[in-house]
Amino acid sequence: MKANKLLKVLSAATIISTLAVVENSTQSNTTFAIENNAVAAKDIKNLPDGEYNITAEALKFYGAEGEASMAAAGLDTTKTKLIVRNGQYFVNVSFKPITFGGLNGYLGDLKYYDGDKTHANRNSIQNNEFNPAAIVEYYSTAETDNFVETYKKKFPGRTAYPKTLSYSVDKNKIDSNNKLETYTEVYVPVMASIGETFGTQRMILKFDLSNALNMVANTQPAPAKPAKTEATVKPETPENTQPSNKPTEPTNYIFETSMVLHMDNGESVNRHSLAYHMDYKNHRIDKDTSGILVVAKSKLAFDSLKDQFSEHSIKRWYYALVYNNFPDDSGEIDRPIGRDSKNRLRRAIDGENPKRALTRYEGMERFGNIVLIKAILETGRTHQIRVHLTSIGHPLVGDTLYGSKKDRFGADGQILHAAHLEFVHPRTGKSISFDSEPPEYFTKAVEKAKRLAGLK
């Protein structure tokens, strides 16, 4: 394979490995190991990327210093996390139901302040200076209270209460005792039932990050692997991952930077590209979906990718063929997805244990009643694109699980291709991106759609 094919990715798998570079030429593949000198943090503002258990307390915003907030009982202190990613700090906070005035209820929302005001002048913070925290996990729709309709009215489009929320914090505000004070605004429907003015409460969330330093002190970095040169070895195929009428293994590794490897299957496209010999797995694509996949092969890489997926900072989009024209050229679908209680292979809107799911879409070409779209994932739930588009009347062509059992295209699965992936390199902290051209099965489906529409 010529060197100029190194940047071309057809059906590809991306592997985060232990700091290795693979150079692909017409002669051989050579692997060079690079030494990884992990540096322990000297202070709380210089933590390595990762996830840390920390403690938190919820205090009154107004009134007596250090007095617990009315919402303090809802703070699940066992699940409070500090997330460090590429030098940026985030906190994840989880809430459980509270009892107020003899009534039980859930937290409805959390906003945070990220400006320059301090404890001394916090009272001057205006309502419009609070930003919405990101919801990373919802309760199921079955986990509810008597005030859920009030909650839905205030937040149209939501059908379940938030369980875990995340927001960014300024590490430069951590004091010499490893404490960090943040100013938040919560909405609790059960309190709103007493009076609307009680529903929204300001609260100080104060974090103690000392345990993060202890975790770093007790963790030893893994030694770097020695440099080596070796011939390419074809990986074994995991059982039950490949349809029998499709290629079962990648043919060439074509590109790898310090932690990233791509495989090129040439003209014989493996539509279900998987990474082989994986030690850690935190990214997947559906069976019968082609395109780019990233898999960690070290703890460092796994933790970094886990955080990036959790924070929804990884950029990715897909190409898909769907049925039925859209009234607009673009739009978004913000509906929680959980497991289908009637069919364990499927997922459903508001299914069991739903989690927030957001998909944006853009129409690219119309072929009569079939549309080529770009689907942009803001979250990454199982079968998300397929479930979301089916829920608004646009099932994917070839998708017999969510669409028609008899698809006239005769495809071996949904016409869906993971075309773009962009994330922060786990070690260098630099953004890297990869694009995958639609393979033959996809382009043939597009050509057939054109013929059916009389466009060719």
Radius of gyration: 25 Å
- Beta-strand content bin: 25-35%
Task: Please tally the helical runs, counting DSSP H or I stretches of 4 or more residues.
Answer: 7
Q: Please give the number of β-strands.
A: 28
Largest sheet: 7 strands, mixed
The share of residues in helices is: 10-25%
Mean pLDDT: 76
Low-confidence stretches: 1-41, 220-280
In angstroms, what separates the terminal alpha carbons?
A: 34 Å
**Outline, from the CA principal axes?**
globular
| Structural class by sheet pairing and helices | mainly beta
Describe the structure.
A hairpin with a 4-residue loop joins strand 2 (20-24) and strand 3. With 456 residues, the protein is mostly beta strands. The two termini are 34 Å apart. The strands form seven sheets. Strands 18, 20, 21, 25, 26, 27 and 28 form a seven-stranded mixed β-sheet that branches. Strands 4-6-7-13-12 form a five-stranded antiparallel β-sheet, with helices on both faces. A five-stranded antiparallel β-sheet has the order 5-15-14-10-11. Mean pLDDT is 76; it is low at 1-41 and 220-280. It contains seven helices and 28 strands. It is globular.
